[in-house]
Request: fold
Amino acid sequence: MFDYSTAALIVVLLFGLVLMGVHVAVALGVTSAIGIYLATGKLRIVEATLASTAAEALRDFTFAVIPLFMLMGEFIGRSGAITDIYIAINKGLRRIPGRLAIATVLGNTIFSFVTGVSIASAAAFSRIAYPEMKEHNYDRGFALGAIAGSSCLGMLIPPSVLMIVWGILTEQSIGALFLAGVIPGLLLASMFILYIVGVAILRPDKVGEGKAHMPAGGAAALDSTQARLPPLQLAISLIGVGFIVAAVLGGIWAGIFTPTEGAGAGAALALILAIVKGLRLREFIGAIYSVGKTAAPILILLLLAALYSRTLAMTGVTTVIRTIFEESGLQAWQVLAIIVLIWFVLGMIIDSISIILLTVPIVEPVAQVFGFDRLSFAIVGIVAIEAGLLTPPFGLLVYTVKAAIQDEKIGVQRIFASSVPYWAIMLIAVLLIVAFPWLANYLPDLLM
Reply:
């Protein structure tokens, strides 16, 4: 008979270590080792399980997807192509209220198709969009809220690091997860834009529309900046980014190559675009170093998360938790509400990848028992977890934006407050996906 005290110890110890400030990777490793030892009573089995898990992980090409997609986004970001596209979007939205904030959302949407990391989007558009919005006397909090909020699209629109991690942990098709995120991602971007337009109409002072708030030179100030963008430069950026997105994601969805092969092809194409756009050797080395510094901890976390998943299976923890929920008498929507609430609370204190590694091996089997569709549940989880990046006290995207702008006149608290509407919109998106699972399933069912 299973020892319930062992199950409780494994779960409580893991979250206790994380809340005490122990690194998630260390917490996963320590908890796994203790759990396997309690289940088997032999240290040799602990060592053998760790060795076999590591060996299987190193042989799995899926683990290469993350650094390769990150490298693709890094090369495109350093090429300046996204800046060119952002300027072009601004010019195209000339007559729309709040156009700079809307251009930020659209720019982040496009950038999300080439990078799977929200932090990269937040850092990039803090440097690209914020100076322009500040020049046009946008309310600084509103401007930074738009940047931080729309940066969340980076984890929902493919290629997404969170989707890759989710797919590895649950053994789902990464290509199907990528497809499942497209419609919800575009829906979320549209909701962000509607909110910005509403604010621009009701509170024009937030977007610098009042006479007292207009910059020197008026609305023509930005147009003169845009006019300096050579048409050939813009064409190279648009065609280059469009071709990379179409080739990589289209190739994966058409079955021409695997996600790993697609990521490698995307990184190579992005490097070519960056070289055409004038990438220098120092910037190339910097891109490699930046990706390595970011991807290495994620891969270590994935390795130890795989070990943790094995521990849960060996000790029966997942079975016990599933049984507890089954016998609780709760309805499916109540179980989902509890899971989402846990994700929201964890999002306030730890990062999104760690939340997935800690919770998905436990809650995904529970969701299957209650009949939730796997793809729509994954998208609900990613949106809910990503919303945590906007909530205090952790709020990684908010701190990223604050660090990137180097503006002492605005504090972290104001950015958090300005991000609240975007958090609320993401909660609405969660409810819509729960109510209409076809939002996530339509494209996978159609194309795969």
